[in-house]
């Protein structure tokens, strides 16, 4: 999620795109995991084999043909109390929230309340150059806006405060090349607020959470007492579960872009509903997410790895390094893999997800 981290991801994605033909042809996978399509216990064993050499702690869900086919969990949500991770454990999802914000914007476009070419100046005229920034550019991170991802001096206690902070801190570079910045999606959350007459989180609940019966998704400020919440850790000097606390000041600035806690089961349900007509129709989803008309190949919350596969990655980098979320799926939504981690390791969760996806 942090600005300094995302250009590295974008560069990695571009290198991947450049060599994708050779890579796909070679099927350069670790020997421990084959490309055999699996189901049931065989799939679970294959996932366990991918995880075994690593110090991954968290949850993994696989979806196929409109269903969640398995959820595997590893390690503790709280190592001190030995509370195990389950499919209902709450994780901070970081940038995995962005597709949810994008879906709300797409719904409002469907309702005729704005379109992809609507200018930011309609909603935030005080931002320099807002009359030259479109909704599509916000969704694609090609707006020219830039803002460092660092915690504010004090926690922002309301959505209004988070929006005001972004409007004050964001800068317009006028460079329309791809530049991943959370400010784009905070402003999109503000647009949802203005067009619905509800707070962003109220609109999210009304339009996505309640219709899909997602009962394990909360803004970090309103997590119910008694919820099982994943604590943050890192693997360090041969030790698992070295504590790494998440900075709530940072979370408070990430409205619509990384302030949610969610279970992996809820996220799997959201991803399945995103293009099957419950949230968006397939053409609406395609219009939102398959417009990689720029060097970042990013649109509507997703990186487009190639014509078949899309990716979402979320993490808080130095605030802290512990949490990591990944979703890699085929653009048809015929299969996908979710990974929620609460311990930072050297394991490449994107590659692990890719290996598991090969079995679906």
Automatic annotation (TrEMBL):
InterPro entries: AmpC-like, Beta-lactam-related, Beta-lactam/transpept-like. One of its GO terms (molecular function) is hydrolase activity. Residues 46-354 form the Beta-lactamase-related domain. The keyword Lyase does not apply. It comes from the Bacteria. Keywords: Hydrolase. This is Serine hydrolase. The lineage of its organism: Bacteria, Bacillati, Bacillota, Bacilli, Lactobacillales.
């Amino acid at each position: 999620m942090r600005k300094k981290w995302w250009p590295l991801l974008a560069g990695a994605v571009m290198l991947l795109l450049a060599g994708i033909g050779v890579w796909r042809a070679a099927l350069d996978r670790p020997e421990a995991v084959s490309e055999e399509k699996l189901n049931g216990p065989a799939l679970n064993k294959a996932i366990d084999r991918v995880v075994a050499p690593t110090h991954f702690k968290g949850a993994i869900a696989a979806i196929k043909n409109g269903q969640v086919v398995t959820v595997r969990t590893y390690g503790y949500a709280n190592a001190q109390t030995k509370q195990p991770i389950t499919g209902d454990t709450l994780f901070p999802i970081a940038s995995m929230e962005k597709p949810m914000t994008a879906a709300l914007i797409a719904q409002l476009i469907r309702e005729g309340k704005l379109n992809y070419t609507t200018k930011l100046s309609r909603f935030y005229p005080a931002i320099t150059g807002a009359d030259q920034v479109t909704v599509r550019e916000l969704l694609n991170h090609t707006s020219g806006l830039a803002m460092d991802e660092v915690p504010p001096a004090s926690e922002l206690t309301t959505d209004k405060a988070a929006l005001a902070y972004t409007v004050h801190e964001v800068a317009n570079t006028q460079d329309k090349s791809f530049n991943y910045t959370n400010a784009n999606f905070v402003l999109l959350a503000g647009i949802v607020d203005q067009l619905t007459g509800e707070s962003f989180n109220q609109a999210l609940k009304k339009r996505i959470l309640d219709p899909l019966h997602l009962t394990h998704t909360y803004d970090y400020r309103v997590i119910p007492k008694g919820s099982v919440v994943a604590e943050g850790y890192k693997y360090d000097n041969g030790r698992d579960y070295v504590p790494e606390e998440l900075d709530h000041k940072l979370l408070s600035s990430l409205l619509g872009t990384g302030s949610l806690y969610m279970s992996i089961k809820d996220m799997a349900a959201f991803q399945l509903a995103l293009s099957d007509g419950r949230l968006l129709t397939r053409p609406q989803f395609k219009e939102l997410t398959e417009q990689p008309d720029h060097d970042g190949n990013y649109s509507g919350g997703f990186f487009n790895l190639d014509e078949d596969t899309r990716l979402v990655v979320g993490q808080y980098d130095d605030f802290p390094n512990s949490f990591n979320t990944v979703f890699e799926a085929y653009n048809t939504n015929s299969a996908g893999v979710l990974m929620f981690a609460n311990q930072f390791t050297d394991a490449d969760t994107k590659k692990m997800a890719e290996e598991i996806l090969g079995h679906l």
